[in-house]
Amino acid sequence: MPEALSETTIDDMARAVHEHYLRARRAAGDDEAVVGWDELPHRLRDDNRDHARDVPRKLAAIGCALSRRPDLAPAVLTDAEIERLARLEHLRWMRARVEAGWRPGAVHDPQGRRHPDLVPWDELTEEAKEKDRSTLRTLPAVLAVAGLRIVRESGFSGP
Question: Taking the model in full, what pTM does it have?
Answer without folding.
Answer: 0.79
